[in-house]
Amino acid sequence: METDVRPVTGSLWRDRDFLIFWCAQTLSVAGDSFALIAVPLLVLNVTGSVAQMGLLTGVSGAASVAAGVFAGVLADRFDRRRLLIVCDVVRLVLYAAIPVVWAFGQHVWLLYSVLPLAAAVGMVFQVTYVSAVRGLAGGGRVTEANGMLYATAAAAGILGPTLAGVVAGHLGSTAAIAINAGSFGLSAVGVLLTRASRYAVEPVEPAPRGRPWRELLAGAEFLFRQPVLRTLTVLLSFFIFMTLGLTDIVIYRLKHDLGQPDSVVGVVLGVGAAGTMVGSMLVARVRRTLGFGPSWIGAQVVSGLAILGLGLAGSVWGVAAIMALYLACVSVAGICSMSLRQQVTPAHLLGRVTSAFWTIHFSLGPVGAAALGWGAARYGATAVFVFAGASCLLLALVALVTPVRQRHPERA
């Protein structure tokens, strides 16, 4: 593969390839926000069970973890541009199958077949996407690029959940899922319009014969040799256990505890997405001012307090405001973590390191999502929020006595 070795400099606002990629992914995330609302509503409206919501989230998460084992090798060994396009087309077909089949009757089993497959393909896409951003933006602009991508995705996510709630309320949840399917087509077209040379990876030696697992484990080995990345991976694995299923619990609280319609659920999550946009816009400045460690740990502390607040909020607008605060902090911590991995990882290993991180990171998530759903059904949403929030605060305290507290680990 021909590698473009020229440094990527200048303003991202004048970079044609990055701007096309940026717009395409923003539209895709807007479509994704429809599925974020529509799938849990579809399950809840058909089964009436928050435990089923948690179980489906858990099964899909498990499929992501399984795909993550191989996603990094694919991202490092194959044309990343072509891989992104293939993933988008496959997800378009999978999500489009739901409204088509649902037109002939309600089949919950279809969700357990399609959504895990879509989640697995989505993991391959995400690993490749993170690997591609460094090539598109350049190492020196990666935090800014991640902030721009997250900010506009969040802006699209503000309108998306609101429209998804309206569409689900008037046309049904499957109509909202069909819109999500179409968004993957837009994403594929956007990637197709960018130059292939911007996705090129550095040539690497072929994997040793008879030892394919060495290549699969190369990313994990790099993660655990780097002290900050190692600690972040462990801490974030427990964080995802506590938070992967939180959106389901918020929806359950709004529908079950507060008696709100689907349209209000969409509005609340749309307001919450505004927090992601704000956090994404501020993250580059926050990290420059405070450094990595204070930014990441501070965001985790506020996230834990916000989750506690969700258990105490008694009004719709209270839930919406706290969700905005929580998602703002999650975006700050997430962008800091992802940017650090992109900065310190060699380009030819970036796919496998990203894959290893997400595989380990999400390994406890499916169990946590199912556990949160079961806990909400048995003890109520408030108890789940209090437990999850207190646990996240504990993780932040642990981080204070680890290498994560460093202000500039990327310089080491």
TrEMBL record:
Transmembrane parts of this sequence: 20-44, 50-71, 83-104, 110-136, 148-168, 174-193, 232-252, 264-284, 296-313, 319-337, 349-373, 379-401
The membrane-topology field of this record reads:
Multi-pass membrane protein
Q: Which CDD domains match?
A: MFS_MefA_like (cd06173)
Cross-referenced Pfam families: MFS_1
Classification via PROSITE patterns: MFS
Subcellular location(s): the record lists: Cell membrane
Q: Where is the Major facilitator superfamily (MFS) profile domain?
A: 229-412
Keyword set, alphabetical order: Cell membrane, Membrane, Transmembrane, Transmembrane helix
* Entries under InterPro entries matching the protein: MFS (IPR011701), MFS_dom (IPR020846), MFS_trans_sf (IPR036259)
The organism's superkingdom is given as Bacteria
Gene3D superfamilies (alphabetical): MFS general substrate transporter like domains
Q: Where is the signal peptide?
A: none
Identify the PANTHER family for this entry.
Answer: INTEGRAL MEMBRANE EFFLUX PROTEIN-RELATED, MAJOR FACILITATOR SUPERFAMILY ASSOCIATED DOMAIN-CONTAINING PROTEIN
Name of the protein in its database record: MFS transporter
The source organism is Nonomuraea marmarensis
The lineage is: Bacteria, Bacillati, Actinomycetota, Actinomycetes, Streptosporangiales
